[in-house]
Amino acid sequence: MINAIIIIGSIAFFLYYLKGLKNAKINAKIIVTIGMFSAISYILSMIEFIKYPQGGGISLFSMLPTMLLSVLCGNTIGITGGLVYGLLKLLNGAYIIHPAQFLLDYILPTMLLGLAGTFGKEKKSKVILGCLFALALSVSMNIISGCVFFGDYAPEGMNVFVYSFLYNVSSLGVEGLLSTIIISILPLNRFNKALNLSGNQ
Length: 201
Hints:
Keywords: Membrane, Transmembrane, Transmembrane helix. By secondary structure, the chain is mainly alpha-helical.
């Protein structure tokens, strides 16, 4: 039942994404920008400071480019960048035991980072709120995956949700918070002028 709910929810999100993609202004510059940001995310993900025994850990701000892309160019472009980044991560191999688990671990988390631009970029507070919103959704996917598919890894006597929450928040959550802090101090106006992509949502 839970697997069906996950897949149905994923389909709903993809439909939301495709609707936005249909209305987005995609040109060669946008495509190159998405590819560049996604490639940077992938490269940064391979530089790990801390690696956890069951997978995951803290890498060199691999979430930052996808969230920044969303803030600068809008959610649709950000989600597209997250999708490309997620697919690139598969090059390192994937541990798949169910289609729902594949979506929760490898596709949805990076795509949801593309919602960082939800509240706009006019004020730093909105940028930070958008990044935290996207981060919360992204990490939630990994937490759900841990509860549903990897509960056997929880230490004896520990609640599965508590284990998955601590495992993912202490790794992905920390990395995402650090990425959010960096984005909050970046000169976003200069980035926007350099890319000249405002208006692409």
